[in-house]
Amino acid sequence: MRAEPVAFGVVTSSPTAPSPSGSASDPADARRFRFAPSPTGFFHVGGARTALFNWALARQSAGTLVLRIEDTDEARNRPEWIDGIIDALTWIGISSDDPHFEGPHFQSANAGAHLGAAQRLYESGAAYYCDLSPDEVQARAKELGITGYDGYSRDRGLEPAPGRVLRFRVPDGETVVDDAVRGEVRFDNSTIEDFVLLRGNGTPVFLLANVVDDAEMGITDVVRAEEHLPNTPKQQMLWEALGLSTPRWGHVPVLVNEQRKKLSKRRDQVALESYRDDGILADAMVNYLMTLGWTPPGAEEAGSEIMGWPEMEAAFRLEDVNTSPAFFDVKKLVAFNKAYIREMPADEYLARASAELPADWDRERFAQIAPHLQERLERFSDVPESVDFLFLPDGVDPAIDEASWRKATSPEWAGPLLGQLRETYADLADGAWTADDLKSTMERVMSSYEEKPGKELKLGKAQAFCRVAVTGRSVGPPLFESLEVLGREATLSRIDRALTLLDHSERQD
RNA sequence: GCCCCCAUCGUCUAGUGGCCUAGGACACCACCCUUUCAAGGUGGCGGCACGGGUUCGAAUCCCGUUGGGGGUGCCA
């Protein structure tokens, strides 16, 4: 049946369904999955989820995930894109070095087999040639009041010739697709036109190439996105016409945007690489992607969906995948990412965070403040802006956020308190410029103020103006730790600037 | 148009006829804690699209309607 025996991978089984008996370690149970992206300039997050599902299933059965590049459309694909696909897969933990991984294989390299299969189909009468051009097909359809191709050349006995397409003779009856995710899906064959197998220039189309490759590679399970479901009866008929038993199908729901439309390159952030560049952790992305359409068992009892890959890999079942489209929610992704950042070992976190810094920023200085950033960080790309006030050139003051300034300076005591704090800080011994001392000094100073008559002033309010004066903002890392890192000189000069500014604005009022 | 799929809080989901007064997570709100923010704690808001069946009993099964999505290429 196959042009060449299967000679790659750890599996020696035929493309027919494996025996249902045997233990998990029995090679007969090892199943072969495939991931077949079309080469584009980026790696789609939806594709990443599909790949992950396949990966979990392949490893569960001690089987294989085959990467196949669908590059038959020569007009649009570039060799360098392949590296991007491999990199992206590696990033989400699907490493090409893993024994369960195989590939990449190139569909274009198998053109001979595609043609051979087409020839067999033609010889057996399962396919026939047709000389109608696309325009002619359309004109006929219009004339007949139907859509698509009407089978015009079915019995004309045309020989192969340039410009003629090979079409599949769709048999009467019904095609039932047995899908692991959604059960039986029935298609009336009369609604399926005699589709093209070979183009007028003799090249095979995706439908044929896909089936031939899957068969040759011994693929036992085809798990892909729902958009392929309408193709499936056609492919199933092809498997059958070729005398092969069909693989186990599984169509997982598509990922959609807030408009409930399939994620599109134009409108949505769909490139996996872009999330990586934004400082989303691979583990967080993997975890989040897996929860789209599937809930790890035990998540409810644990009160958390945060779960490591090994656990998810072991628990994943296609039968449990939801059937409706899932919205790719960046907010939830970021929440997962935050949780993962928080859990990182300190040294690993520091290395990753430091990588985000501009080249001329002092790494040692950053290391002092970094621990205070860890549990606040949403994504690593936010690192520089969170601590930029510590890395300004000498004499340059941070830009002051208007709203923060207004709020911090509104109490009458704000100016006087900061003025007194400035003098006290100036007198602090060199060895006392530490977060603890800076804090207790503040507490001493503020004790002679009241928030309102009769109402005690709390540290949270008292520190507000100082924070804005020194960092320019009302939010950020803990204040006294920041001051310690900043140093006395810069702290005092920034406070002086703020006091001057306040003086000016008050005189204008 | 035709074919196919889908329908539980804003979002992701649990739920496979009685355990459902529908559970969890993210988001949001409030309070507590607190050195701002974050984290943590407590609480709150919020959903079975609609209409018919079947059944003693329906979020769960069936039919229909409505709504959404996918496909309908000599793209993949």
Task: Tell me what the structure shows.
The chain has 509 residues and is an alpha/beta fold. 42% of the residues lie in helices and 11% in strands. The protein is built from 21 helices and 14 strands. Strands 1-2-3 form a three-stranded parallel sheet. A three-stranded antiparallel sheet has the order 4-5-8. It has a two-stranded antiparallel ribbon with strand order 6-7. α6 links the parallel β9 and β10. α15 runs antiparallel to α19, α16 packs antiparallel against α21 (488-508) and α17 (435-446) packs across α20 (479-486). The protein binds one RNA strand of 76 nucleotides through β7, α5, α9, β12 and α11.
Q: How would you summarize what this structure contains?
A:
With 509 residues, the chain is an alpha/beta fold. Helices cover 42% and strands 11% of the residues.
Relevant terms:
509 residues, alpha/beta, 3-stranded parallel sheet, 3-stranded antiparallel sheet, 21 helices, 14 strands, 11% strand, elongated, RNA-binding
Write the layout of secondary structure elements.
Layout: E1 32-35, H1 45-60, E2 64-69, H2 80-91, E3 101-106, H3 111-123, E4 127-130, H4 134-144, E5 165-168, E6 174-179, E7 183-188, E8 196-198, H5 206-216, E9 221-225, H6 232-241, E10 248-252, E11 255-256, H7 272-277, H8 282-290, H9 299-302, H10 309-315, E12 326-327, H11 330-343, H12 346-354, H13 363-373, H14 383-387, H15 402-409, H16 414-427, H17 435-446, E13 450-452, E14 455-456, H18 459-462, H19 464-471, H20 479-486, H21 488-508
Parallel strand pairs: 1-2, 2-3, 9-10, 11-12
Antiparallel strand pairs: 4-5, 5-8, 6-7, 13-14
The protein binds one RNA strand of 76 nucleotides through strand 7, helix 5, helix 9, strand 12 and helix 11.
